[in-house]
Design goal:
Chain lengths: 249, 146
């Protein structure tokens, strides 16, 4: 049985029907040493204050729902041990996102960015089922495997200083996922994605602060993906000057 | 955390939301926190790029106006303020280059055609070594020219 002690959890509260602006509320709760930050929030919700709103689902760092700001840093709360913090832990909604209620942020802006880069396999012509599976070698898979680990938790957007200053920036996760499909040998949508990448607010808005990669809970390294996308786009642009049909698929 | 921090216009959807929302806040500690130093230093480097470009233009302009004009410009660069400026610019460039080298391996694709990317440590060591050698060679050439 894990040891139990008391911690103060300071949580952002915001009810759009009643509150003019978000405010902070303190909860003193008994916690166990093996708890994650999400366990503390769930305890508050279940035992202390049922009006607290926060997102969570899988509790195993897969769904990407429970991203929040813990003591000033974007964290996946189901993966973030409560024991890493002192007696007071401050949990606030992810920065750089509008807040719907308490710790729940508006993700529609993120979804729009994600859709822009078409994070799925684009084929000029679908292959017939009779043609059999499209084969891919382990080396080809290795080219993009790291970037396919993204769980869309949006911590990278919360940490990105460029998002804070240039609201139109496409952002780390969307670019990393777009680049992931550009690297996929089965995909034929590079041209469409590169067009989006090169627009205002695209890959060249990134100044390589690297904060996105620092906070990524799945070690996707979005900033590395963005720089790779920059290099690939420059090469593609040069090829376009030299070759009639350009370089991208 | 203070909710009085500046708000911004980030990540909002293109269509109006069905409920009223609190505006986004800037990340905690932005821009003073240590983790944003690299971002700020990178942005500040624009000052050196701009002013250094102007100085190069000035030198090239003088070069076109004969030897006397060139010598005047070269002498003016010996002013202590210019020396301090160049030392600061060199410090910034060194920081920028070494940081870029450290981050460089991640910016490269895992394979270049059939060739696999060399180990990260090898890439960083190679680039840093080349930077040091080139810096010393250029410094020696300039020393000899002066």
């Amino acid at each position: 049985m894990a040891e139990t002690r008391t911690k103060t959890i300071v949580v952002t509260r915001f009810d759009p029907d009643r509150d003019e602006a978000p405010r902070l509320q303190r909860y003193e709760i008994p916690v166990q040493d093996d708890w994650k930050v999400l366990d503390a929030l769930n305890y508050i919700k279940d035992e202390v204050d049922g009006t607290l709103s926060h997102r969570w689902s899988c509790r195993m760092a897969v769904c990407g729902s429970c991203g929040m700001n813990v003591n000033g840093s974007p964290k996946l709360t189901c993966k973030d041990p409560l024991s890493d913090y002192g007696d007071t832990v401050e949990v606030t909604p992810l920065p750089n996102f509008p807040v719907i209620r308490d710790l729940v942020v508006e993700i529609e802006g993120f979804m729009e960015r994600l859709q822009k880069v078409k994070p799925w396999i684009v084929r000029a012509k679908e292959l017939a089922v009779e043609a059999g599976p499209t084969r891919q070698s382990p080396a080809e898979l290795d080219d993009f495997r790291q970037f396919s680990m993204c769980i869309n938790c949006m911590l990278c957007y919360a940490a990105c200083p460029v998002i804070a200053n240039e609201p139109d920036f496409l952002g780390p996760a969307a670019i990393a996922l777009g680049h992931r499909y550009n690297l996929d040998t089965r995909d034929q949508g590079q041209k469409e994605r590169n067009r989006v990448f090169r627009e205002d607010g695209g890959i060249f808005s990134c100044s390589y602060a690297n904060e996105c990669s620092e906070v990524c809970p799945k070690h996707v390294d979005p900033s590395g993906a963005i720089q790779q996308a920059k290099l690939a786009n420059v090469i593609d642009w040069v090829k376009g000057l030299v070759l009639e049909r350009g370089g991208a698929r | 955390m203070s909710h009085a921090r500046p708000v911004l216009d980030a990540m909002k959807p293109s269509r109006p939301a069905p409920t009223r929302m609190a505006p986004p806040r800037k990340p905690d500690g932005f821009p003073n926190a240590g983790r944003y130093r690299a971002y700020l230093a990178f942005g500040f480097g624009g000052f050196f790029l701009l002013t250094m470009s102007l100085l190069v233009l000035r030198a090239v302009w003088a070069l076109g106006n004969g030897e006397a004009a060139w010598r005047r410009v070269a002498t003016s660069f010996q002013n202590p303020l210019y020396v301090i400026y160049h030392a600061l610019a060199f410090l910034w460039l060194s920081w920028f280059i070494l940081r870029l080298f450290r981050l460089f391996p991640a910016t490269q694709p895992r394979r270049l055609g059939p060739i696999r990317r060399p180990p990260d440590a090898l890439l960083v060591a190679g680039l840093s070594g080349a930077f040091v050698v080139v810096t010393f060679v250029v410094a020696a050439m300039l020393w000899g020219a002066s």
